Amino acid sequence: MVRFSGALFLGWLLLLPAVQAYAQPRAAAQDTAVVFKSKSCGCCNDWVRHLRSNGFRVDARDVEDIPGQRAKLGVPQELGSCHTAIVGGYAIEGHVPAADIRRLLKERPRARGLAVPGMPLGSPGMEGPRKDPYETLLFQPDGRYVVFERH
Question: How many domains in the chain?
Answer without folding.
Answer: 1
